[in-house]
Amino acid sequence: MPYMFISTQIRLENGPTNVGDEYSDPAVMNYLGARKTTMLGNNFSEYHVDDPPRMVLDKLEKIGFRVLTMTGVGQTLVWCLHKEIE
């Protein structure tokens, strides 16, 4: 999976960071130390880490991901990353 989104709430720049959904690469989620959770009332799961986004971005860069774009959506910050397929 060459594309990935990470996000955090503006008031939570120090973490936690949302790093994936239920279809995310398990190896990458394990590398990040992410935990899979399902919020009450949701019918989908998400992966979260306690690290701030900067630390997550640093870790992902080490395994070949690059930031394509970043935006703010309401009170949420979102980064889109890509990894070249080898």
Summarize the entry for a quick read.
By secondary structure, this protein is of the alpha+beta class. The chain contains two helices and six strands, in the order ββαββαββ. A hairpin with an 8-residue loop joins β3 and β4 (46-49).
What can you see in these coordinates?
With 86 residues, this protein is α+β, with helices and mostly antiparallel strands. Helix content is 20%, strand content 42%. The protein has two helices and six strands; from the N terminus they run E-E-H-E-E-H-E-E. The strands form two sheets. The protein has a three-stranded antiparallel β-sheet with strand order 1-6-5, with helices on one face. Strand 3 and strand 4 (46-49) form a beta hairpin. The N and C termini lie close together (11 Å). GO terms for molecular function: GTP cyclohydrolase binding. It comes from Xyrichtys novacula. It is found in: Cytoplasm, Cytosol; Nucleus membrane.
